[in-house]
Every structure is written in C-alpha cells, then in structure tokens.
Amino acid sequence: MSDTHEISHVSDTAHWVAVYRAMETERPDAIFRDPYARRLAGPRGEAIVRALPRGRNWDWPMIVRTAVMDEILLRAITRDGVRTVVNLAAGLDARPYRLDLPRALRWLDVDLPAIQGYKRDALSGETPRCALEWLPADLSDAAQRAAVLQQVAAGPGPALAITEGLLIYLQAEQVAELARDLHGCPPVSWWLMDLASPRLLKLMARTWGKAVQQGAPFRFAPAEGTAFFAPAGWREAEFRSMWDESLRLKRSMPLAGFWNLVGKLYPKKTREEMRRMSGIVLLQRT
After folding, report:
1. Which of 83, 72, 125, 79 is nearest to 108 (CA)?
2. Does domain 58-285 have CATH number 3.40.50.150?
3. Confidence of residue 159 (pLDDT cuts 50, 70, 90)
4. Residues 95, 18: contact at Cβ < 8 Å?
5. Where are the domains of the chain?
6. Among 218, 229, 156, 224, which Cα is nearest to 192's?
7. Is 194 exposed, middle or buried (0-12, 13-18, 19+ CB in 10 A)?
C-alpha cells in the first residue's frame, strides 16, 4: 500500500471504496451503516478520493453495490441455508462485524497478508457477529488459492463465494481459472460478484484515466456477460442492474431522472445493453 494519493496497487482501492461506505453511513437517511468504514479508510482513502477526478461524485455505484450485496447475502443465509461465506480479496469489508449474522455462520476473510494485517489491527477490540476466520493468501498463486478452497471444502455447506470489486482487475484467463476452481470446490453453490461490460470499461477509462489505470488497471469486462462463466459450470441466477438499483435505492448519479427518460428513446436492444452495463450478479452452480 502506497503512502501517496495515487493508486499504485489494487489494494489501495479498498481504502478508496471504504470512504464511500463512510460517506453513506454518515447520511441521516443511510441505506446501510458501516461504523468501521471511516476508520478503515484512513487518511489514505481520503487522499485517493480527493485526488481522483470527480472522486466524490462517483460514490453512488459503490454504495449501491454494497447495499445490494448485503441484501442478497442475507437472503442467501436465511432462504438458501448458506452456512459458509468465503470473501475472496475481502479488502476492508467489515460485513462480519456490521451485519446481523448467525453466530454459527462460518466466514472466511481472504486477502493479501498486508491489507489483512492492516484490517485486523484497525478492528482490534471489535467482536465479529459470526465465526470469522482469517486466511492470508495471494489468490493469483494457484497453490495458495487451492489451499484456501481446501479450507472451504473442510467446512459446512452450502457455501457462498464473494468477489466484490475483484474481477474487473483480473485478466479473462485468471477469471476463468477462478471460476473453474470455485466449481471444483463442492460446497460452493453460489457466487456473488459485480460485473462490468466493455461499455462501462470505456466510461471508467475516460473518467479516471491514468489516475487508476497505472496502479490498478481495469481489465475484465466480458462482452458475453454472465455467459462467460457457463463453460466453468455456472449459470446466472440473478442479475441486478446497477442503474435500476440506483433508482430503487435513490442513490443515483446527478440528472438520473433525465437520463432515464432519454434512455426510453433508444431501441429495446440498446436499452437492455445499457441496463446491463454494470450489475450485481448471483451465479449458481449448474
């Protein structure tokens, strides 16, 4: 993790996103509350947001993503009987501490040793609401990834994997490998992720350019959408459009109402392409 305001490593993005969770938490009408976000973001996160072009204006997708993933996760536990959650590249996520989770739920927090150590220090003295286990690992290393999944397989199922804010920074072959590895772990029945499209990647490159691309370049945005995961044994169980959810949760970009009206003038195919430009996805094992 760098000491400057620049994003020099993908781990820096965890501080960046934590600022947005803190901003939402401090609103009187907050749609979720993360009392640890400001502490976890630290001065590093604030410096990144200040330095990014339109840094504070782009809080809404991160806020929507957090809220929707919270909803799907809690439903998976109560409705689908998920007993293990494995959060891959967990960053500074504090869900085991802030959500109303069953005490018996097994939660595996997986990330690089440096950022996991930072988070554990920041949360020292706090008590998780479930059975939290820390697994330091470099997920780009096949052997370490296999060791993590062995730990998952040794525990109760069904299990849900989370890759929040991870896939976009990977190469397509790395994502394909991860998809195959997760499918090869029998307890993992569900996979919760956020997914970008090529259209979104172009928009983000125009918005942030070198500020992000030099240290944590955006890479993965499959033109085929969730069909990318089908060869590895996954099917789309649910797709939540980031745009639709932002309107539902009243956390949209400025002039969202106007752009929503303009969008109705486009052909149906184009409207659907734009609706799926960015989304929160739940995959199910086939």
Report:
1. 83
2. yes
3. very high
4. no
5. 58-285
6. 229
7. buried
In 3D, which of 34, 35, 41 has the Cα closest to residue 12? 41
Give me the count of residues in the chain. 286
Average pLDDT for residues 159-174, to the nearest whole number? Answer: 96
What pLDDT, in 10s, does the model give residues 143-155? 999 999 999 999 9
Task: Judge residue 162's burial from the number of C-beta atoms within 10 Å of its C-beta, 0-12 exposed, 13-18 middle, 19 or more buried.
Answer: buried
In the numeric block, which tokens belong to residue 9?
A: 């490593």
Question: For residue 70, how far is the Cα from the chain centroid?
Answer: 11
User: What is the SS3 assignment for 189?
Assistant: strand
Token pair for 131: 């059975």
User: Measuring CA to CA, which residue among 242, 275, 256, 260 is closest to residue 69?
Assistant: 242
CB 247 within 8 A of CB 201: no
User: Residue 250 is encoded by which pair of tokens?
Assistant: 């009243």
CB 217 within 8 A of CB 169: yes
Amino acid at 84: T
Tens of pLDDT, residue by residue over 173-194, are 999 999 999 999 999 999 999 9
What is the pTM (predicted TM-score) of this model? 0.91
Per-residue pLDDT for 214 more than 80? no
pLDDT tens string 49-82: 888 777 677 789 999 999 999 999 999 999 999 9
Residue 115 neighbours by CB distance under 10 Å:
21
Tokens read off for 139? 């997920």
The two tokens of residue 269 are 């195919």
- Token pair for 27: 């609103």
* CA-based torsion, 262, 265, 270, 271: positive or negative: positive
CB 168, CB 220: distance < 8 Å: yes
Q: H or E segment at 131? A: strand 131-136
